[in-house]
Write a structure and sequence with these properties.
This protein has about 170 residues and is mainly alpha-helical. About 55% of the residues lie in helices and about 0% in strands.
């Protein structure tokens, strides 16, 4: 599976515009946060990266948007056979993480936890305080409790804009 190809496809077909607070800049930060958490917890990095891309890609708006996680999961299922080469069990985990990321708070699964925590560590972008009580993993709780985001900010973000540039 080529993640760049998956990103390019989703960017072409997303309902979210580039400047949305739930758009590609957010997805890139969620990916970065998730990779940091996966490194610390042993979560599945591929699922974390796919979650970052799909969890908000089918939002209709930047306000309350019931069902957007499920729509993202269903979109992933639609392109799974063409672009996403992971096991059925891993895909089920991705689907669950996307579907429930705004409606459930707790999980014992380290990969789902890394997905949800990665998203919640970026909640400051909309003016909320990152709160440890909504985190599942120890590394995410530690960041939330300390307010020190430096470990995340040291990691390079995906340059998604190059994936949307026209080919010369």
């Amino acid at each position: 599976m080529n993640l760049e190809t998956v990103w390019s496809q989703v960017l072409k077909e997303t309902s979210v515009n580039d400047c949305s607070i739930h758009g590609p800049d957010h997805w890139a930060r969620v990916e970065r946060n998730g990779l940091y958490l996966a490194e610390k917890t042993g979560a599945n990095q591929t699922i974390v990266q796919l979650f970052a891309l799909f969890h908000d890609c089918r939002r209709i708006n930047d306000a309350i948007d019931p069902g957007h996680g499920l729509r993202g999961a269903e979109y992933a299922a639609k392109i799974k056979d063409k672009l996403i080469n992971i096991s059925s069990d891993d895909f089920d985990k991705l689907y669950y993480a996307c579907e429930w990321h705004t409606d459930k708070n707790e999980t014992d699964d380290i990969t789902v936890a890394a997905c949800w925590d990665a998203d919640r560590l970026d909640i400051g972008r909309v003016g909320y305080i990152v709160d440890a009580q909504y985190m599942n993993s120890k590394p995410a709780k530690a960041i939330a409790e300390s307010g020190d985001f430096n470990p995340l900010e040291r990691i390079r973000l995906r340059n998604w804009e190059k994936l949307t540039a026209p080919i010369p």
